[in-house]
Amino acid sequence: MTRPRLPVDVIGWISQRTRGVLVAASLMTLVGLALMVWSMAQPTPMPVILAMSVGQGLGILAFVLFGVVVLVDQLRRQRDAGAHDAAASSGIPAITPGELPVPTPGSAAPSHEAPP
């Protein structure tokens, strides 16, 4: 049974733009809070209506953006840890290209083939 997966493009896009998405969420939160403070400082109908509609909408959208960034970061970390665990459990040592052993002449194992 296969698990439903998020499209890789969306995860990659959000991973590349994490800082920008978090800045946008922070700015939306600050604007929403400013509307709330305005409605408390001047409790007339228009500031209250703006705070209850626009301010609340910006706050919810900012929270959703923050949650999506956290979710994508968690998915990326799990994927990286899973790849590391799979390599470790397979018994194959993880060797980077710079760590490959270089054979020296005469260190080759004897061949069991018949000479020509």
Descriptive notes:
By secondary structure, this protein is mainly α. It contains three helices and no strands. It has helices spanning 8-16, 18-41, 45-89. Helix 2 (18-41) runs antiparallel to helix 3 (45-89). The chain is rod-shaped, with a radius of gyration of 28 Å. The model has no long low-confidence stretch (mean pLDDT 80).
What does this entry show, briefly?
With 116 residues, the chain is an all-alpha fold. It has 3 helices and no strands.
Helix content: 55-70%
Bin the strand percentage.
under 5%
**Gyration radius, to the nearest Å?**
28 Å
- Overall structural class, as computed from helix and strand content, comes to mainly alpha
What is the succession of H and E elements?
HHH
